[in-house]
């Protein structure tokens, strides 16, 4: 029946508390407000990287929309992490947490290099390497407690794959129509 004083709505047998929804919206507004300038930086980096990748993909190069978008956004994310962490630890310790971060980046670059291979005159694994690199940044953001940035970058990475998938399907459909 619901808590006294809390209005509830029943939709397909489920009850939702308006206060609970309002509380979630307030939390999201605070997170968005706190990280809006970082989100804008990430979106600009993603957009510019995807634009560069579109040109490369259109030119028949192996590193296309996804790879350029992810690398550009990943770079912005690492810089944002550095800025946030530097502010968090200023005068708190003589330990430089960014040294750990720099070593993670190098290590993941090594792993990413292993994901790239040549098969029948084609280079494969570039997007996987870029995605691993971004995933490492997401992990670093979570490790440093910058959850909103990690969630935002994960969602934006998925957006890269969604948009590029739509473009690739349209191109395949157009190529198929041209063959007919």
What's the gist of this structure?
This protein has 180 residues and is mainly alpha-helical. It has 5 helices and 4 strands. It has one domain (8-179).
Which key phrases capture this entry?
180 residues, mainly alpha, two-stranded antiparallel ribbon, 8% strand, disordered N terminus
How would you describe the overall organization of this protein?
It is a single chain. The chain is mainly alpha-helical. It has one domain. It contains five helices and four strands; from the N terminus they run ββαααββαα. The strands form two sheets. Strands 1-2 form a two-stranded antiparallel sheet. The chain has a two-stranded antiparallel sheet with strand order 3-4. β1 and β2 form a beta hairpin. α1 packs across α2, α2 runs parallel beside α4 and α2 runs antiparallel to α5. The longest helix is centred in the first third of the chain and has 41 residues. It is flat. 27% of the residues are buried.
Overall geometric form? flat
Q: What is the oligomeric state here?
A: single chain
What order do the helices and strands follow?
Answer: EEHHHEEHH
Largest sheet: 2 strands, antiparallel
Number of strands: 4
Poorly predicted segments: 1-9
The strand line-up of the biggest sheet is 1-2
Report strand %.
5-15%
CA gyration radius, whole angstroms: 21 Å
Number of helical segments?
A: 5
């Amino acid at each position: 029946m619901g808590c006294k004083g809390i209005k509830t709505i029943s939709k397909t047998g489920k009850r939702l508390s308006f206060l609970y929804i309002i509380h979630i919206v307030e939390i999201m507004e605070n997170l968005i407000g706190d990280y809006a300038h970082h989100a804008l930086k990430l979106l600009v980096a993603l957009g510019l990287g995807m634009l560069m990748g579109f040109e490369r993909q259109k030119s028949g190069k192996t590193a296309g929309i996804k790879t350029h978008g992810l690398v550009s956004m990943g770079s912005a994310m690492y810089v944002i992490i550095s800025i946030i962490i530097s502010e968090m630890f200023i005068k708190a310790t003589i330990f430089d947490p960014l040294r750990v971060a720099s070593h993670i980046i190098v290590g993941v670059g090594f792993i990413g290099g292993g994901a790239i291979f040549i098969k029948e005159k084609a280079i494969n694994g570039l997007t996987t390497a870029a995605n691993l690199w971004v995933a490492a940044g997401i992990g670093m953001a979570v490790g440093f407690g910058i959850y909103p940035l990690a969630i935002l970058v994960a969602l934006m990475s998925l957006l890269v794959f969604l948009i590029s998938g739509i473009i690739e399907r349209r191109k395949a459909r157009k190529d198929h129509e041209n063959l007919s």
